[in-house]
TrEMBL record:
One of its GO terms (cellular component) is plasma membrane. The lineage of its organism: Bacteria, Pseudomonadati, Pseudomonadota, Alphaproteobacteria, Rhodospirillales. InterPro entries: MetI-like (IPR000515), MetI-like_sf (IPR035906), Sugar_ABC_transporter (IPR052730). This is ABC transporter permease subunit. PANTHER family: GLUCOSE IMPORT SYSTEM PERMEASE PROTEIN GLCT, TREHALOSE TRANSPORT SYSTEM PERMEASE PROTEIN SUGA. The keyword Iron does not apply. Its main location: membrane.
Length: 287
């Protein structure tokens, strides 16, 4: 039996695709234009070629910011993905507590990013903040405004608190979609809890975990508001991530050419690493 394919449905989504493409194409072309030109004011531009790309790629400042960004990204992924899966496994599948748990998990995601940074800035102050006073009261010399290690600890704790809920909700959606027949067969075979997780739950969550990893990777690589409000990139440059450094170059120094080249390199890094993550996690999916 031949299956009839109706391509007319594309006409309904075509306006949306064109609108999204237009909104993305115009800013991208503007950035590309600035990345290959130099200006001395008065809206006068001169062709510069790839000199800005060379400057960025050979810049120690860019390499340092990229190193801090990679450290932050892989640290929060190593914490949030296992923690989110563990919390999802502990959540009830049926009953009155299901909506309570789901709403509770969703609450941090509803808070605006700048408010999250402001909350944690006050929460972690060493003199009046609950976290700061508690840690100092326990004998720790904690001051995230002066000590880089404390600033990193606070930044990572804030991101884990804010975004682990996303992993939890995605992992929970994957868990509840597993048919009960799999669990019944596992109980008949006498499978342990670890065996059920290893051979049933984890493979069935593979797609949602791939989405979780990609979303958290891209979000963490693009993060700006929360660390900017919390630490401002300090103390010194210890928490100056790529996004913060890019804003400093573009708006603080008003170096449009280097900033445009840096943003394109930034974009290509995110695109390449997202493709790598997706390829590795979806390997052998058809088998």
């Amino acid at each position: 039996m031949n299956k009839t394919v109706n391509q007319k449905a594309w006409f309904f989504v075509l306006p949306v695709l064109l609108l999204v493409a237009f909104n993305a194409f115009i800013p991208l072309m503007t950035v590309v234009n600035y990345s290959v030109q130099e200006t001395f004011g008065d809206n006068t531009f001169f062709w510069a070629g790839v000199i800005w790309f060379q400057d960025v790629l050979h810049s120690e400042r860019f390499h340092a910011a990229l190193g801090r960004q990679l450290t932050f990204t892989f640290t929060i992924l190593a914490i949030e993905i296992p923690l989110g899966v563990a919390i999802a496994l502990c959540m009830p599948r049926r009953g009155i507590w299901v909506p309570v748990c789901l709403v509770t998990m969703a609450l941090p995601l509803l808070i605006p990013w700048n408010v999250v940074g402001a909350i944690w800035n006050i929460f972690a102050l060493p003199d009046i903040g609950l976290l700061g006073r508690t840690l100092n009261g326990l004998g720790f010399d904690y001051n995230f405004t002066r000590q880089p290690g404390d600033a990193w600890f606070t930044l990572i704790a804030m991101d884990v608190w804010h975004w682990t809920s996303l992993v939890v909700l995605l992992a929970y959606a994957g868990l509840v979609s597993i048919p009960d027949a799999f669990y019944q067969a596992a109980r008949i075979d006498g499978a342990s809890s670890w065996a059920i997780f290893r051979y049933i739950q984890l493979p069935k969550m593979k797609r949602v975990l791939t989405i979780a990893v990609l979303l958290r990777f891209m979000d963490s690589f693009n993060i700006y508001t929360e660390p900017s409000v919390l630490t401002g990139g300090g103390p010194g440059n210890s928490t100056t991530l790529l996004s913060i450094d890019l804003v400093k170059v573009a708006l603080g120094q008003f170096d449009l050419g280097p900033a445009a080249a840096m943003s394109l390199i930034y974009f290509l890094i995110i695109l390449a690493m997202s493709w790598l993550f997706y390829t590795l996690m979806m390997r052998n999916e058809d088998q």
